[in-house]
Amino acid sequence: MAEAKRQHDWHIASSVMALTAEINRDRKRRRKPFKPDDFNPYTVTRSVPVKATVEQVAHLLGAVFHPSPVSLQTSDTCPKSEPDPPTSNC
Question: Region Disordered: which residues (predicted)?
Fold first, then answer.
């Protein structure tokens, strides 16, 4: 409960700090407006995953990527089996 009050207090304080910073912001030096999350230590920032191909990841890891031939990709590696005939318990 004390942790929730602390987070609530930081939410209010960071809103006041963001408002004060926004009032005094030089729009030529900083184009991006301030947000309360910029001042709140409890805000968790999540990184955005980067989209990359397998070749790009292999290059970053220093590995060589060899794509499989097209014929292997189109053929079924596991043949489908026929379903078992229904059985009766009568």
Answer: 69-90
